[in-house]
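Subject — a protein and its fold

Tokens — whole-number codes for backbone shape
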Amino acid sequence: MPGSNKSLLARRARLLGPNVPIFYNDPVHLVKGEGVWLWDADGRKFLDCYNNVPHVGHCNPRVVEAIHRQASTLNTHTRYLHEGMLDYIERLTSTMHSGLTTAVMTCTGSEANDIALRMAEAVTGRRGIIATDATYHGNSALVSQLSRSNVPASGFGLEDYFRHVVAPDSYRHSDPEGLLFANAVAEKIAELQKSPHGFAALIVCPFFLNEGFPSQVAGWLKPAAAVVRKAGGMLICDEVQSGFGRIGSHFWAYEKQQIQPDIVVLGKPMANGHPVGAVVSSLDTMTVFRKSFRYFNTFGGNPVSCAAAMAVLEELEEYQLMAHAQKVGDYALERLRQLQKKYDCIGDIRSSGLVFGAELVLDKATKEPASEYTDTIINAMRHKGVLLSKLGRYKNTLKIRPPMPFSTENADLLFNTLDEVLAES
């Protein structure tokens, strides 16, 4: 490990404390970004196949200019009147189904999911929440309870309000129409209805991205949504990772699922790295929430954040990046198919737009996860100048989720490098 990295790691440990997450066995010291490229302190160039936060590319000129222009003019909180937030919410909600017309602006997805759960409580009068057992929705004291891998030793007694269903796994457990998942949700609803908490909401990423984005037909989630509606609960779709055209076929993953959520949660890519999140709902839901809870966020929806977020929407539209994601994603899927034929370690491949990856296994017959081997591949790719990660229940699925300008030429570099690494491993 370079000396400078050792020094930085020592400072991190001293200033941040232990167990702060960091990528790769040999961490990357980044100093510059542009488009789909990143540079380290030694001037080495890396292809970014992981970061969805700079949604329209690192240091996108339109976003940078919008931030500079607004920061040079005014930045304050939302207790003063300003058109920026209102213009943005109108533009944002115009991309969603007609029932979603109002929003709360936040700084993070964690804050947004926290609000979404309180909205469900306000509307239903109940507190029981259902999520999958392999998901992640944030790190506040409340929403951290949704993640089985993240549950702290003490949950402030909140854990009793949550139930978890087994996450979908199209590779190991066939559920082609989503009926088994819907039945599992119904069982957990029944449990909550017998408890003092009742059933308030099901919260899911409609693309199940953290769960390993299993292959699903359009409308797969409809049976579960119907179960939620029948029980008088609310459906919360966390589109932090799957939204803004990333899946290629639709601007929002809930559209591909052919459902209409009551609440949509947004974050990370909204403003290309500027800290912005949002909760979108109907006016009726928002009215009940506002009457039930006092909520104010000093930085949420500030003029600079909204200018950055608006610039992202403009960039997506002008350059037709959703259609671009579909084109490049189709090409990436074909390259994955070629690699799957060549290497036995690739048990399953899956893709939608600019989310694609391969599940690595030790044996195709038993489908035993190759979790340690996946780590080896990711670290080898890093040393060859390509950055990606892993996810899923077994942390054995390559997570490839690049900025939206990612091209077929970039895909060729990615998969040619992956071919080399798999051949050498």
The mean pLDDT is 95. Residues 344 and 359 are 11 Å apart (CA to CA). Residues 321-342 form the longest helix (22 residues). The first strand starts at residue 30 and ends at 34.
